[in-house]
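[step 3/7] inverse_fold.run input=structure_tokens len=68
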């Protein structure tokens, strides 16, 4: 596996070339932009309060053993 970094325009064009509709490509692109701005960095106890238990870190779900 190798990581390839594409600029936004290249990424959008590649997905549209593969048949995705432009408006369907723009949603995740908007999320990428928000992530780059740090909009997902803030945390609050809301999820844990709703669940009634500690939240499970994403790294534990995606890469078991990586977060320890």
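[step 3/7] decode complete -> sequence:
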């Amino acid at each position: 596996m190798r990581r390839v970094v594409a600029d936004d325009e290249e990424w959008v064009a590649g997905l549209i070339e593969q048949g995705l509709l432009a408006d369907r490509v723009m949603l995740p692109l908007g999320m990428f932009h928000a992530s780059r701005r740090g909009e997902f960095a803030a945390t609050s106890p809301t999820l844990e309060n709703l669940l009634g238990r500690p939240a499970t870190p994403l790294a534990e779900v995606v890469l078991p053993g990586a977060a320890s």
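[step 4/7] annotate
Residues 8-62 form one domain.
The chain has a mean pLDDT of 88.
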